[in-house]
């Protein structure tokens, strides 16, 4: 299997880890990119564009990144806060009056980002058709009663996070999250990252599907207690219900799904686009751009929620919209922040080392957070840096 692209001197172990993903972990098609202090030091791709095809993965091939979307969407709310348009400590109902129903008056904007809103499930899941309607998801969340007292505990809002974020952005800006992102961030910066795939880019996105391979040796599945995968198999668990807020889940290869904008799950990106997005958050000197002020970086990575997660079962750590370095989502240093995508994708930034990382794949595994392919690449970067 040919691997294409380049690595800077000293980063050769990342290429070795990337090759191992194909040789031992079943990757069919994937790409990884790493920036350091705004300079690209890793840009690799290989395999096939489609998980079930033979056409080669090319420079610029993109894939759906699933929940890595959440880190992209979080940046929109944090940038609105940075610009003075959104108060993180205001009630959500201040911007979205209909949301106050069912005792949700005390849910703060902050609770949406730190997964403490108490709204990870819907009593009546949406159909795929309803989920693609930008009005139906927010309506369902606004009508939903909290599962726990908002602000008192945390649990991963796997799908409802997207509707909460999207409606807040609409109420503040008059645009959807995808529209605002395209007009204010990804369009001006020329990033290959879309929330709501334009028809003109549809030919660049490969087909995705489930793959098998060796089981992970780190992260959630290494813990002796009940894993998130086991909890997901229980139909009555919050885990299963949270991931089933859309039921059945839409076909991720469906053009209608890709054209829609679900800020929890369906951004499309190249590895380079995802990595440079995070590079711009902390300071992309190559593009003379820094999206987040130092104060906003601290908001993203300051611990807001930690401990046993009511949805993901094991311990998780969240800042505002981002998973933080820990057992569930190992990055580089304790100050790293980012988000994995269920089944493989990963994007994060580490301000201490100046690293920004992006990995995308067309082969989804059972993992929810600590995918072994992404983690092998992260370990290689960690080794290069001597961490």
UniProtKB/TrEMBL annotation:
**Name of the featured protein:** Serine hydrolase domain-containing protein
Q: Where in the numbering of this chain does the Beta-lactamase-related domain appear?
A: 20-374
InterPro entries associated with the record:
Beta-lactam-related (IPR001466), Beta-lactam/transpept-like (IPR012338), Beta-lactamase/esterase (IPR052907)
Where do transmembrane segments lie in this chain? Answer: none
Q: Does the keyword Hydrolase apply?
A: yes
Organism field: Streptomyces indiaensis
Q: Does the keyword GTP-binding apply?
A: no
Looking up SUPFAM superfamilies in the UniProt record yields: beta-lactamase/transpeptidase-like (SSF56601)
Q: What top-level branch of life does the organism fall under?
A: Bacteria
Write out the entry's keywords from A to Z: Hydrolase
| One term of GO molecular function | hydrolase activity
């Amino acid at each position: 299997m040919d691997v294409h692209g380049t690595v800077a001197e000293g980063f050769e172990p990342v290429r070795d880890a990337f090759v191992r993903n194909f040789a031992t972990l079943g990757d069919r098609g994937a790409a990884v990119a790493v920036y350091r202090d705004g300079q690209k030091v890793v840009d690799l791709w290989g395999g096939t564009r489609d998980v079930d095809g033979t056409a080669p993965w090319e420079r610029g091939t993109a894939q759906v990144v699933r929940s890595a979307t959440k880190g992209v969407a979080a940046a929109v709310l944090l940038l609105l806060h940075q610009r003075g348009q959104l108060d993180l400590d205001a009630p959500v109902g201040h911007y979205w009056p209909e949301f106050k129903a069912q005792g949700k008056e005390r849910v703060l904007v902050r609770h949406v980002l730190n997964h403490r809103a108490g709204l990870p499930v819907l009593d009546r899941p949406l159909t795929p058709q309803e989920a693609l309607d930008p009005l139906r998801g927010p309506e369902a969340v606004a009508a939903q009663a909290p599962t726990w007292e908002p602000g008192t505990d945390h649990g991963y809002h796997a799908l409802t996070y997207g509707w909460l974020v999207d409606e807040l952005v609409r109420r503040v800006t008059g645009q959807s999250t995808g529209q605002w992102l395209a007009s204010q961030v990804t369009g001006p910066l020329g990033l290959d990252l879309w929330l709501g795939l334009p028809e003109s880019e549809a030919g660049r996105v490969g087909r995705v599907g489930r793959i098998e391979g060796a089981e992970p040796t780190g992260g959630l599945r290494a813990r002796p207690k009940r894993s998130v995968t086991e909890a997901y198999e229980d139909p009555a668990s919050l885990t299963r219900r949270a991931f089933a807020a859309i039921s059945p889940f839409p076909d991720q290869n469906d053009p209608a799904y890709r054209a829609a904008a679900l800020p929890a799950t369906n951004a499309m990106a190249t590895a380079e686009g995802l990595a440079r997005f995070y590079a711009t958050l902390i300071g992309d000197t190559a593009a003379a751009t820094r999206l987040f002020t130092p104060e906003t970086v601290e908001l993203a990575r300051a611990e807001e929620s930690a401990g046993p997660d009511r949805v993901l079962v094991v311990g998780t750590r969240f800042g505002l919209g981002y998973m933080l370095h820990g057992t569930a989502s190992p990055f580089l240093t304790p100050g790293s922040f980012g988000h994995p995508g269920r089944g493989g994708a990963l994007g994060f930034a580490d301000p201490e080392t100046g690293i920004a990382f992006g990995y995308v794949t067309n082969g989804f595994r059972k993992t929810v957070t600590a995918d072994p392919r992404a983690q092998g690449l992260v370990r290689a970067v960690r080794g290069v840096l001597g961490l």
